[in-house]
Amino acid sequence: MRPAVRRWWPFTVRGTGAVLLAVASFVIAQRAGIPELLYFASLLAALLAASGIALLLTRGAGSVTRTITPEVPEVGARASVLVRAGLQSALPTGPGRWRDALPSGLSGRAEGASPGLSSTLAGAGGTIEVRYEVVGTSRGIHSLGPFEVTTTDPFGLVRRRLALGRPTAVTVGPAVVDLAPLPTASGEAGGSRQTTTMQLGQGADNLVARPYAPGDSMRRIHWRATAHRDTLMVRQEEQESSPAATVVFDRALSRWSPLAAHAPGADAAFETAVSACVSVIARLVHEGYTVDVVDSDGALLTDPVEGGDDIDARRTAAGFASLRARSDDPSHRIVPASAGALLGPVVVVTGRLGADDRASLGTVARHSAMPVLIVVADEGIDADLDGLRAGGWRAALVRSGGEVAAAWDDAMEQGYSRVG
Q1: Which residue has the higher pLDDT, 352 or 72?
Q2: pTM of this structure
Q3: Which of 250, 282, 295, 339 could form a disulfide with 350 if both were Cys (CB 3.0 to 4.6 A apart)?
Q4: Residue 132: how many CB atoms within 10 A of its CB?
Q5: With helix as H, strand as E and coil as C, how does 182-236 read?
Q6: How confident is the model at residue 334 (pLDDT cuts 50, 70, 90)?
Q7: 3 state SS of 47
Q8: Mean pLDDT, range 219-224, rounded to an integer
Q9: Of 184, 181, 190, 194, which is closest to residue 283 (Cα–Cα)?
């Protein structure tokens, strides 16, 4: 039986057989004059009617709740979905099927068998709890649902399809790729969080103690404060400060396909650029940098991300789920005017390069401790990149849908630039 027919036909295979048998018994009983067959056909018809009435009393109880882990899945990553739905039925129901409608931004198998429910006349509602896995396929905010349950009567003759609850908004964030660490050569501004020593007193007893944080050396544990507070404490003999880095994401529409301004996930090159941007943010934050993320027109794309806070970096990546390209500003800059005075690392993620872009990028390379340029484009721009590399940029090209990590490795392996 075709799926289109099954949606309106209320009988199961067993029920369809019962209908055919009842009709045949009526016809044969009338023509052959067999009253026993007439009684049998009437009994089947009454059973089918009772089964249908019993299912009509089945209804949803409460709302459908979905728990998604992680809460914001990334493109290409798996997530677990736990669905709880309530049902009430005057009579016990037989085993059925469930299905959760998946949006285009998620893929997976969201259907399966559901167990039968006992009668809920006593007041207790029956609950269907199912779990399935999905994979993020497209960045954006998508609607998951509705949740459909197909129930049958205790005899398995009639089925009823119920759409329960409302769809749930699911945010699919861009893919965060694990990038290689920054180079640690002398004269480089990269590396771990910088510290400046500040002597607070003579002897360990005069040092300020603070709670232990992951990454602290065991040699810095303040044992007396640990014993006093019953939690690990470390000596605060250093005043920590996070160096600053800047990530520039050029969203000007002239560098991307017009599809990049329509909807998230529509332009493959722009999606690769978004993934590169959030991956760079995660790497710089992990290295201890406090990162400012700006557009090429100077507008902040998110609040500054504190160095060392990997969770905040992931949260920032989730905030890029609905990011799109914008119309060009009159200056057509590839970097903000203020970027020329930045001394810390500057990472620029952009699309197609223009004829005048090399000049505007030159001042940044002369001041930044580590200027990195990641160009997402499909046409050949090797000559432009060679000129930028000669001017001090660590420049790398990545194709649409290409390996961001490989482009980052290429940029990190290039010669060291100097400040000033």
Answers
A1: 72
A2: 0.76
A3: 250
A4: 17
A5: CCCCCCCCCCCCCEEECCCCCCHHHCCEEECCCCCCHHHECHHHHHHHCCCEEEC
A6: confident
A7: helix
A8: 71
A9: 181
Q: Report which of 235, 137, 168, 231 is spatially closest to residue 195, judged by C-alpha positions.
A: 235
Q: How does pLDDT run across 393-411, given as a tens digit for each residue?
A: 999 999 999 999 999 999 9
The predicted structure's pLDDT at residue 79: 97
Strand 140-144 to strand 168-172: parallel, antiparallel, or no bridges (unpaired)? antiparallel
CA–CA dist 77, 106 (Å, integer): 10
Range of weakest confidence among 138-142, 171-175, 297-301: 297-301
What residues contact residue 266 under an 8 Å CB cut-off, 6+ apart?
Answer: 257, 259, 260
SS3 147: strand
Tell me which residue has tokens 């197909």.
150
Q: Which is higher by pLDDT, 159 or 92?
A: 159
Point out which residues pair with 161 in neighbouring strands: 150
Provide CB contacts within 8 A for 383, sequence distance 6+: none
Q: Check: CB of residue 77 under 8 Å from CB of residue 136.
A: yes
Band (pLDDT 50/70/90 cuts) for residue 207 is low
The helices-and-strands tally (H runs, E runs) of the chain is 9, 20
**Tokens of residue 144, six digits:** 């998951």
**Given the structure tokens 């990997």, which residue do they identify?**
310
Separation between Cα atoms, residue 124 and residue 284, nearest integer Å: 53
Determine phi and psi for 332, rounding to 5 degrees. Answer: 55, 35
Which residues lie below 8 Å from residue 125, measured CB to CB, with a gap of 6+? 61, 62, 86, 87, 88
pLDDT at 115 over 90: no
Please give the Cα distance from 80 to 353 (Å, whole number). Answer: 41
Positive or negative torsion for Cα 272, 348, 391, 418 = negative
Q: Rounded to an integer, what is the distance from CA 387 to the centroid of its chain?
A: 37
Q: What is the rounded CA–CA span in Å between residue 293 and residue 290? A: 10
**How many Cβ atoms from other residues are within 10 Å of residue 184's Cβ?**
10
Greatest C-alpha distance within the chain: 114
- 46-57 residues labelled b (16+ CB within 10 A) or e (exposed): ebbeebbebbee
Residue type, 123: G
